[in-house]
């Protein structure tokens, strides 16, 4: 049996989690003060995901870039592919907060949305 140590990021408590692993499976989780910690450890150790946040270039706007994020978590192994795809995009102002700027990033069904607005310059 292998023990993995993690710090839970579900809330500000930052519980120190201890997960027992056997043959690539999580057998038990301890150290959490709520069920979220248990769920976090199991997901992080078997199928980790992240929200991707960055900026995308904008033409004709009052600022040269707009902040964006994935609408939901993407598999951790897709992060660099997401960043490469977003680096190649250039949008035209105006941009509205919440506007979908890319559908299905990195071969997923996950959209990327603007997290701020950019007016024409």
How would you describe the overall organization of this protein?
The chain is elongated. The protein has helices at residues 35-46, 79-87; strands at 2-7, 16-22, 25-30, 49-50, 53-59, 65-70, 74-75, 90-92, 100-102, 112-114. The mean pLDDT is 96. The chain is built from two helices and ten strands. A hairpin with an 8-residue loop joins β1 (2-7) and β2 (16-22). 22% of the residues are buried. Strands 8-5-6-10-9 form a five-stranded mixed sheet. A three-stranded antiparallel sheet has the order 1-2-3, covered by helices on one side. Strands 4-7 form a two-stranded antiparallel ribbon. The protein is of the alpha+beta class.
Q: Give the end-to-end Cα distance, rounded to a whole number of Å.
A: 60 Å
> What's the rounded overall pLDDT mean?
96
| Low-confidence region ranges | none
Strand order of the largest sheet: 8-5-6-10-9
The number of strands is: 10
Give the number of helices: 2
Helix content: 10-25%
The major sheet is characterized as:
5 strands, mixed
What general outline do the C-alpha atoms trace? Answer: elongated
The radius of gyration computed from the alpha-carbon positions, rounded to a whole number of angstroms, is 19 Å
Oligomer: single chain
Order of secondary-structure elements: EEEHEEEEHEEE
Relative strand content? 35-45%
**Which structural class is indicated by helix and strand composition?**
alpha+beta
């Amino acid at each position: 049996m292998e023990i993995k140590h993690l710090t839970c990021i579900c809330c500000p408590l930052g519980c120190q989690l201890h997960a027992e692993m056997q043959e690539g499976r999580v057998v038990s989780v301890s150290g959490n003060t709520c069920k979220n910690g248990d769920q976090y450890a199991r997901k992080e150790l078997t199928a980790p995901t992240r929200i991707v946040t960055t900026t995308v270039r904008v033409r004709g706007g009052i600022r040269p870039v707009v902040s964006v994020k994935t609408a939901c978590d993407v598999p951790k192994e897709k992060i660099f592919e997401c960043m490469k795809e977003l680096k190649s995009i250039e949008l035209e102002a105006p941009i509205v907060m919440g506007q979908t700027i890319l559908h299905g990033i990195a071969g997923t069904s996950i959209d990327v949305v603007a997290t701020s607005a950019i007016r024409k310059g």
